[in-house]
Structure prediction request, 197 residues.
Amino acid sequence: MTSPRSTTSHALLGLLAIRPWTTYELAKQVQRSLDWFWPRAERKLYDEPKKLAEDGLVKSEKEMTGARPRTVYGITRKGRDAQRKWLSEPPMPPSLEFEGMVKVFFADGGTLEQLRATLRSIAETAEEHVTDLEEKIGTLGVSDAFPERRHLNAIGLRFHVDHERHLAQWARWAIEQTKSWKSTTDAGAWDFHQAFG
Prediction:
């Protein structure tokens, strides 16, 4: 009996259900798509297809590209069944891994300028991401590699754009709030209720 599969395993099965890929091609596709919301996939990318093949969920075929060998992975019927079963299960609640928020949380160990620099960095990074995502959105319907998946890509992209806009808006708001603070340990007359009003 095979052990329960991780979300990363199922993410790779999902990609392999679209079409066969080499590990290199999977890595590139993960960067283009999954990296926005499941960056862990890339870390396990080079071992996971072999494990999936051992369990019969994918098959591997050796091919030659010129004089270089390559392995192409494709999903099996058993892999599609496992993927369907996983899709019928409720998802785990979202978790957030966000170093910037850890720095904000412990900002009282540093200076007000360090806090503001962290917040500016969060805002600027989010704004850059919005620009990148808007470029992706511009390619939908023009040069997207999988037009049959356009509807799924569109609702996923909407989530990411909204998320990044929210991060930028929150960080700019937080910088504005700190303008009246005396330090990271003394907010002066600033009332914490302002954060929720």
